[in-house]
Task: inverse folding
Protein backbone atom coordinates (compact mmCIF):
# COMPACT_ATOMS: atom_id res chain seq x y z
CA UNK A 1 0.00 0.00 0.00
CA UNK A 2 1.41 3.39 -1.04
CA UNK A 3 1.49 6.25 1.43
CA UNK A 4 -0.82 9.09 0.48
CA UNK A 5 0.88 12.15 -0.87
CA UNK A 6 -0.46 15.33 0.54
CA UNK A 7 -0.16 18.17 -1.90
CA UNK A 8 0.84 21.50 -0.51
CA UNK A 9 -0.78 23.96 -2.88
CA UNK A 10 0.97 27.30 -2.95
CA UNK A 11 -1.30 30.31 -2.79
CA UNK A 12 -1.34 32.10 -6.15
CA UNK A 13 0.35 35.50 -6.20
CA UNK A 14 -2.89 37.19 -7.25
CA UNK A 15 -4.78 35.54 -4.41
CA UNK A 16 -1.96 36.33 -1.96
CA UNK A 17 -2.01 39.99 -3.00
CA UNK A 18 -5.76 40.09 -2.31
CA UNK A 19 -5.27 38.42 1.10
CA UNK A 20 -2.64 41.03 2.02
CA UNK A 21 -5.15 43.76 1.10
CA UNK A 22 -7.76 42.04 3.27
CA UNK A 23 -5.34 41.88 6.21
CA UNK A 24 -4.45 45.57 5.84
CA UNK A 25 -8.13 46.52 5.66
CA UNK A 26 -9.01 44.39 8.69
CA UNK A 27 -6.24 45.95 10.76
CA UNK A 28 -7.34 49.44 9.71
CA UNK A 29 -11.03 48.73 10.31
CA UNK A 30 -11.60 45.77 12.66
CA UNK A 31 -15.37 46.15 12.34
CA UNK A 32 -15.04 44.62 8.85
CA UNK A 33 -14.76 41.23 10.56
CA UNK A 34 -18.55 41.37 10.58
CA UNK A 35 -18.48 41.18 6.76
CA UNK A 36 -16.56 37.90 6.98
CA UNK A 37 -19.02 36.57 9.55
CA UNK A 38 -21.90 37.59 7.28
CA UNK A 39 -20.22 35.81 4.36
CA UNK A 40 -19.82 32.68 6.46
CA UNK A 41 -23.50 32.75 7.40
CA UNK A 42 -24.51 33.31 3.76
CA UNK A 43 -22.42 30.45 2.38
CA UNK A 44 -23.39 28.15 5.25
CA UNK A 45 -27.00 28.38 4.00
CA UNK A 46 -26.04 27.21 0.50
CA UNK A 47 -27.01 23.63 -0.20
CA UNK A 48 -24.39 22.62 -2.76
CA UNK A 49 -20.90 23.63 -1.72
CA UNK A 50 -17.65 21.77 -2.18
CA UNK A 51 -16.43 19.89 0.85
CA UNK A 52 -13.29 22.03 0.95
CA UNK A 53 -15.33 25.22 1.06
CA UNK A 54 -17.40 23.83 3.92
CA UNK A 55 -14.20 22.93 5.76
CA UNK A 56 -12.93 26.49 5.29
CA UNK A 57 -16.14 27.84 6.83
CA UNK A 58 -15.74 25.45 9.75
CA UNK A 59 -12.10 26.46 10.25
CA UNK A 60 -13.07 30.13 10.25
CA UNK A 61 -15.63 29.32 12.94
CA UNK A 62 -12.81 27.78 14.97
CA UNK A 63 -10.67 30.90 14.56
CA UNK A 64 -13.51 33.20 15.65
CA UNK A 65 -14.30 30.95 18.58
CA UNK A 66 -10.67 30.93 19.70
CA UNK A 67 -10.12 34.68 19.68
CA UNK A 68 -11.64 38.10 19.10
CA UNK A 69 -8.25 39.79 18.74
CA UNK A 70 -7.88 41.18 15.21
CA UNK A 71 -4.09 40.64 15.20
CA UNK A 72 -4.43 36.98 16.14
CA UNK A 73 -7.13 36.45 13.52
CA UNK A 74 -4.96 38.06 10.82
CA UNK A 75 -2.01 35.98 12.02
CA UNK A 76 -4.07 32.81 11.66
CA UNK A 77 -5.22 33.77 8.16
CA UNK A 78 -1.59 34.23 7.09
CA UNK A 79 -0.25 31.21 9.01
CA UNK A 80 1.58 28.61 6.97
CA UNK A 81 -0.39 25.74 8.46
CA UNK A 82 -3.46 23.70 7.60
CA UNK A 83 -6.00 26.26 8.81
CA UNK A 84 -4.27 29.26 7.23
CA UNK A 85 -3.92 27.46 3.91
CA UNK A 86 -7.56 26.40 4.02
CA UNK A 87 -8.78 29.95 4.73
CA UNK A 88 -6.67 31.55 1.99
CA UNK A 89 -7.84 29.02 -0.58
CA UNK A 90 -11.35 30.52 -0.68
CA UNK A 91 -11.21 34.30 -1.23
CA UNK A 92 -15.01 34.47 -1.50
CA UNK A 93 -15.05 34.29 2.29
CA UNK A 94 -13.42 37.75 2.31
CA UNK A 95 -15.89 39.28 -0.16
CA UNK A 96 -16.60 42.94 0.58
CA UNK A 97 -13.72 43.46 3.01
CA UNK A 98 -11.54 45.26 0.44
CA UNK A 99 -13.13 48.30 -1.11
CA UNK A 100 -12.88 48.28 -4.89
Result:
Amino acid sequence: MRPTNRRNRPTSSRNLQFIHQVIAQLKAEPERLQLIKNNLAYYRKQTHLKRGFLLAIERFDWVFEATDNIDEICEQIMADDYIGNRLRRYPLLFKGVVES
In short: The CA atoms of residues 14 and 99 lie 16 Å apart. The helical segments are 13-28, 33-44, 51-66, 70-78, 82-88. The radius of gyration is 14 Å. The first helix runs from residue 13 to 28.
